[in-house]
């Protein structure tokens, strides 16, 4: 039983990261019906930018650890968000009226450009975050030993996700995003600046991905230029699982995928972990073709 | 008309290459310049190019300039197949490489079918040389040897509940199977045998499971990036079971990833690391490398690619031929106690390297790799 709960927390921590990345996929899909395959690499860029800023600004020495990390997170999110907007301008906007397949190919190309650029700038070897920045205490909760950082990661992911949800549901801008997702032409007729909405989506999604990258770097320490591929794939799966285009769906999908993975690994087989996760995905899609919380039928891509 | 003329010019330029190339000897290098083993591959290229420059400065081989043709295998079997085809089309005498066993395996048949000599440098999987391919060689030892040394080391330490963890690659799975068979035949038992997914960041699930099985020691047969993460997360979880690793952990990045505190006490098997190489050739080479690149070579595997290049150059020189059969025959029967960078080199009939056994290394408190015996 103890092992079960330990594995549950392991799964939730990984799932929180998946969920944050999945939000980027799902938001872009919701607006443009485009799978942004370069999103996983934006996550990697977040991890690398975090490392560069951490090393060059020494924020944690000047303003203290907590404030320093918060400032760092804001800077990384902002920068990755801007890169997201530039990505849209360079790779997707010129193809807005082209067939959707062209944009998908462009996304794959952008992904390759990003990951190779990171390799050329930072080198092919794995890079390592400085150690000793974060607390390494282990909490004792009902007989379970849970590292504090697992809770911090999960909480941060949840706060970011809930913040996004409130933003989308309760603000005027959020309403505009939802409107543009439903029907761009109608939204335009209602006086919504759809181009600005798309820009905003390409800022928020990558910013969250960048935050996830920073968290992975801070917590796991090691980052490499290929890590965006695996995380991107898992997060994409999570977005489908929850119903792509649906924001709460991406959150649920991410957390669920993390838990399925760790439970499958713990009680069936580690080697078959991914196979089990994808098998569950197929089962869910058979029963609910739109994903767990999806409303619209996901169109073929 | 103009167009046709242009085409003709273009065509003549295109065909000019092979005409001039009769003055050069082309040697292929297939290595992972990108992908997660990119640091190994880039080091392989540096070393082979350095050695080729040295040979060219001394007048080349048989009076011809050596040209190294590099192809990136990406550490990926599919990319490797393309890379192999590209090298074969460039008319190389032989190919050095590559690092991962599953990558080498994907290219083996392409080289065999086109009669191209291949000298792998880091592919230790047993079955690569059990296929009876006449032109396959390797400068690294085999996993059955490695498995034997690993199991002997663990048994000598008095461990009798052993966990084995691999990563499903040809190499890691092969080594894990070797070790399991040897442990089953001994008094000890295997209490855990499973695979992780390489490239992930979070291995706490598998570590939690290992803790549940309560082994005396864990034998990890995979590669250094994952080993580094395992050691780091094992420390965070407060799991103090000792880990012993296979030879793919012999890379300084291991300690960078794990951190010195988590890395301390980790042991792994390996042929001697570059700094511990005994021969005068090795000293000269390490100095030359240092001068050219301002640092020491990272791992032994890239140096073994250098040895592959040197034996191939030696074979061409001695036989005066670039014919694959002649060279292969010389390497198997003619070459004797060749002074390699990593010790003396001889090949048996399967193309495997004879002699030179594995050593045990331990990571000390400051993250240095210390030779144990």
Structure report:
The complex is a heterodimer of chains A (301) and B (373). Chain A has 301 residues and is mainly alpha-helical. Chain A has 12 helices and 4 strands, in the order αααααβββααααβααα. Chain A has one domain: ABC transporter involved in vitamin B12 uptake, BtuC (Orthogonal Bundle), CATH 1.10.3470. Chain A is 74% helix and 4% strand. In chain A, the strands form 2 sheets. Chain A has a two-stranded antiparallel sheet. The N and C termini of chain A lie far apart (42 Å). Chain B contains 13 helices and 14 strands. In chain B, helix 12 crosses helix 13 (324-334). A 7-stranded mixed sheet of chain B has the order 7-6-8-9-10-13-14, with helices on one face. Chain A binds chain B through residues 3, 6-7, 10-11, 13-14, 116, 119, 123-126, 128, 131, 136, 138, 145, 147, 216, 220-222, 224, 226-227, 229-230, 261-262, 265-266, 269-271, 273-274, and chain B through 33-36, 38-39, 41-42, 168, 194-197, 199-202, 204-206, 208-209, 212, 225, 228-229, 232-233, 236-238, 253, 256-257, 259.
| Uncertain stretches of chain B | 13-21
The dominant shape of chain A is globular
CATH architecture of chain A: Orthogonal Bundle
Tell me what portion of residues of chain B adopts beta-strand conformation: 15-25%
Strand arrangement within the widest β-sheet of chain A reads 1-4
Chain pair with largest interface: A-B, 37 and 35 residues
Rounded mean pLDDT of chain A is 87
Output the helix-strand order of chain A. Answer: HHHHHEEEHHHHEHHH
- Amino- and carboxy-terminal Cα gap of chain B: 75 Å
Oligomer: heterodimer
Q: Indicate the structural class of chain B.
A: alpha/beta
Radius of gyration of chain B: 22 Å
